[in-house]
Amino acid sequence: MKKVLLSMAILAILNSCVEKKTSKTKETSKPKTELKKVEETPKSKIISKEFKTKTGKTFIITEEKSSASISKITVTTKGFSEVNESLKMEDSDPFNYALVADVNSDGFDELYVITKGAGSGSYAKVYGFSSNKDKSVTPIYIPELSDDDFVYFFPNYMGHDSFYMEENKLMRKYKQYKKEDEQCCPTGKMKFLEYQLKLGESSWQLKLKK
Q1: Would you list the DSSP string of 85-150?
Q2: How many Å apart are CA 9 and CA 25, to the nearest integer?
Q3: Residue percentage of the chain with pLDDT more than 70
Q4: pLDDT band for position 119 (50/70/90)?
Q5: With contact defined as beta carbons under 8 Å apart, do 46 and 65 qualify?
Q6: Better pLDDT: 25 or 34
Q7: Are strands 95-101 and 45-52 parallel, antiparallel or unpaired?
């Protein structure tokens, strides 16, 4: 009798161990669900501004800002007799401000778009668009400066410049750098430059006045 009871107890213990092992196996075999973080793509910020000419036409500047340092700038028009295709500046520095003026004194305003770099130099750049007697708008050609011309026009230049109008003249100014100046803080004399709008072979050209 004792042997029978002992055998039954041993069988019960073995069955209990097998059930526990099977339960653990089932638990470990369950697939683990991983939660992955979905990164959102930052949305572009779009800003649109209108600028009126003295003849009642409208330039519309739209800036699509994909980051703090890169923008896509588009110029469209309203009121001109011919419909223009959108004039685009891809991968541009951010839009800063715009000037509307009749620099070539033909009775029709041009648009000058000023961009500003996001870096420590805050370098300014100008894009121009001329009115063809209020019928249509075309880009103004701005030739690249040679190394010699850059040295002549921009002595001690390291950015922090701006454009402005003075009696229908497009002007540019910046403070010259001294050797001991940090890039953020020029302390030299102010340098002034004047641009002239001249008719080239196929388009208007914006050139620095010597």
Answers
A1: PPEEEEEEPPEEEEEEE-TT-SSS-EEEEEEE-SSTT--EEEEEEEESTTS-EEEEB-PPPPHHHH
A2: 25
A3: 80
A4: confident
A5: yes
A6: 34
A7: unpaired
Q: Which residue has the tokens 């541009």?
A: 92
- The residue to which tokens 């951010």 are assigned: 94
Judge contact between 194 and 168, C-beta under 8 A: no
- Residue type at position 142: I
Query: Residue 46: enclosing H or E segment and its boundaries?
Result: strand 45-52
Radius of gyration of the chain (CA): 35
CA 87, 92, 97, 100 torsion: positive or negative? negative
Let me know: does 180 contact 115? Beta carbons within 8 Å.
no
| Domains and their CATH numbers in the chain | 45-208 (2.40.128.460)
Length of the chain: 210
Least reliable range by pLDDT among 2-16, 82-96, 130-144: 2-16
For the segment 125-181, what is each residue's pLDDT rounded down to a tens digit?
999 999 999 999 999 999 999 999 999 999 999 999 999 999 999 999 999 999 999
Q: Read off φ and ψ for residue 9, nearest 5 degrees.
A: -65, -40
pTM over 0.90: no
Residue whose structure tokens are 């000023």: 114
